[in-house]
Write a structure and sequence with these properties.
- Tetramer of two alpha and two beta subunits.
- It is found in: Cytoplasm.
- It catalyses: tRNA(Phe) + L-phenylalanine + ATP = L-phenylalanyl-tRNA(Phe) + AMP + diphosphate + H(+).
- Belongs to the class-II aminoacyl-tRNA synthetase family. Phe-tRNA synthetase alpha subunit type 2 subfamily.
- It is an enzyme of class 6 (ligase).
- The chain is an alpha+beta fold.
- It has three domains: 114 residues, Ribosomal Protein S8, Chain: A, domain 1 (2-Layer Sandwich); 57 residues, Arc Repressor Mutant, subunit A (Orthogonal Bundle); 263 residues, Bira Bifunctional Protein, Domain 2 (BirA Bifunctional Protein, domain 2), CATH 3.30.930.10.
- Helix content is 35%, strand content 22%.
- The strands form four sheets. A seven-stranded mixed sheet has the order 7-10-11-15-14-13-12, sandwiched between helices. Strands 1-6-2 form a three-stranded antiparallel sheet. Strands 3-5-4 form a three-stranded antiparallel sheet.
- A hairpin with a 4-residue loop joins β13 and β14.
- The structure holds phenylalanine (PHE).
- The site of phenylalanine has 11 residues, from β14 and β15.
Length: 493
């Protein structure tokens, strides 16, 4: 670069003026490099005056370049014809024969002899001059003075040439002109200030166009991003959000209200985290609690119940909620206490806790996405219909269901979706119609049905962001840079 800079300055000093395009030919360097050197010179002060000018230039297209090298299509057609002629169909096998044939015909180079069967294409003149090829080669050299405007028009029409605008600079000496550039200072030091040398030194200009260092800012975790996607879908579908701000729940709302018998293995410390302090809850709606006790132990509402000795002590035990269905139970009970039943659609997305064996896909805490619709006479068909709409909004259109079992739903279905990226069916959730043994003790009208479903938030997030190990997504081993790298939007496969 510094050689080029000196060269340009020397050229200017000897010739008084220059144009960057001719300098590019003179130094046999790309024009872009000459312009780069000019910018460096300008950064050092008013060494040169550069006036920008725009020149139109003719350039060959790829087809034009091919002709420059191999000859025009019409010349190639001509060259292919033997003295005693050739069948037209054979001639037409040449590349670009169609255009070549018609141009050679109109140039009067060839003719079709129809007296032969089949007719033959024959030469009409002994030899030709391939002016098109000559012109193409002249254009490459920039020597276009003897190409007529009519020919240029024709080449443009044939898409052999194109006009481009080339920006260049006319250079003349500036007020600070000299043959060498002084080094510009970039820092003002205390030494310069003390010695006063700063007065004589030249400082580099600020570059206000320079991109600054990227700003430090917060980044959203992938789980948060997928959560807001789910939330948006629920809101679009007219659902309201349930208050889920209680990680600590008691067994009554987490299990008993959901008709989950007290001996159920999920209620074991192997599966559930129980709280030691405070160990128990004491405030319950007692008449409802009595009805729950009755439906478990003796039955009712058309059910036989489980026929065991239901104990309040078991229901009082505090725990970290194992599902947000505990919140759904609280909300449905509240709904049943209103004077008049009104259909409702509710959702929540929040943390739940299970005493799981930790592995690549399981953690002891995860997020549950829960939805429910309470209305008159809902059926399994409604549930499937809601899923179709809900998952379509997530870009999932292939769904399948498998009968399942939950103590609180009947019928129950596991939800599977086909994942085209992974090429297989994967389980994404669990669902069902809440049992009368759960809803009627709450006091909901008999003909009200509640359809509900639950998904994990982590699973779809891992699929969308391509994580195989849940510990890379959440928990103490997470690489913080992963959060910065995670795109704001993804293209779903
Ligand atoms: N609570 C269930 C999900 C679910 C919610 C509502 C109805 C049916 C199932 C679970 O934890 O897997």
């Amino acid at each position: 670069m510094s050689q080029l800079i000196e060269g340009i300055l020397r050229y200017l000093s000897e010739n008084g003026n220059a144009n960057t395009l001719s300098l590019s030919q003179y130094f046999n360097e790309e024009h872009q490099k000459i312009v780069g050197a000019l910018k460096s010179i300008q950064a050092h002060g008013d060494f040169v005056i550069a006036d920008p000018i725009a020149n139109k230039k003719i350039e060959l297209t790829d087809e034009g370049k091919l002709i420059a090298e191999k000859g025009s299509h019409e010349a190639n057609v001509f060259a292919e014809i033997p003295d005693d002629g050739i069948e037209q169909s054979k001639l037409m096998k040449l590349p670009n024969a169609k255009i070549g044939f018609s141009k050679a015909m109109s140039a009067g180079w060839i003719q079709v002899d129809k007296s032969c069967v089949p007719p033959l294409v024959k030469k009409k003149v002994p030899e030709i001059v391939d002016t098109v090829q000559e012109h193409m080669n002249q254009i490459i050299k920039g020597d276009i003075l003897n190409i007529s405007d009519k020919d240029k028009q024709e080449y443009k029409k044939r898409k052999l040439i194109q006009e481009v605008v080339v920006k260049s600079f006319n250079l003349t000496k500036g007020p600070d002109f000299s043959l060498t550039l002084t080094k510009l200072e970039t820092d003002l030091t205390s030494d310069m200030l003390l010695a006063g040398s700063w007065k004589k030194l030249k400082f580099k200009d600020y570059n206000f166009e320079a991109l600054g260092a990227p700003l430090e800012s917060g980044y959203l975790h992938p789980l948060v991003k997928v959560r807001s996607e789910f939330r948006q879908i629920f809101l679009e579908m007219g659902f309201s959000e349930m208050p889920t701000n209680n990680y600590v729940e008691n067994s009554f709302w987490n299990f008993d209200a959901l008709f989950q018998p007290q001996q159920h293995p999920a209620r074991d410390a192997h599966d559930t985290f129980f709280i030691s302090d405070p160990k128990v809850s004491n405030k319950f709606p007692m008449d409802y609690l009595e009805r729950v006790k009755k439906v478990h132990s003796k039955g009712g509402y058309g059910s036989q119940g489980y026929g065991y000795d239901w104990k309040i002590e078991e229901a009082q035990k505090n725990l970290l909620r194992t599902h947000t269905t505990a919140v759904s139970a609280r909300m449905l009970f509240k709904l049943a206490q209103q004077k008049e039943f009104k259909p409702i659609k509710l959702f929540s997305i929040d943390k739940v806790f299970r005493n799981e064996t930790l592995d690549a896909t399981h953690l002891a805490e995860f997020h549950q996405v829960e939805g429910l619709i309470a209305d008159y006479n809902l059926t399994l068909g409604d549930l499937i219909g809601v899923f179709a709409e809900f998952f379509k909004k997530l870009g999932i259109t292939q769904l399948e269901f498998k009968p399942a079992y939950n103590p609180y739903t009947e019928p129950s279905m596991e939800i599977f979706c086909f994942h085209p990226g992974l090429g297989k069916w994967i389980e994404i959730g669990n669902s069902g119609v809440f049992r009368p043994e759960m809803l009627l003790p709450m006091g909901l009208p008999e003909d009200v049905c509640v359809i509900a479903w639950g998904l994990s938030l982590e699973r779809p997030t891992m699929i969308k962001y391509g994580f195989n190990n849940i510990r890379d997504l959440i928990g103490p081993k997470v690489d913080l840079a992963m959060i910065q790298r995670s795109p704001i939007c993804r293209l779903n496969k």
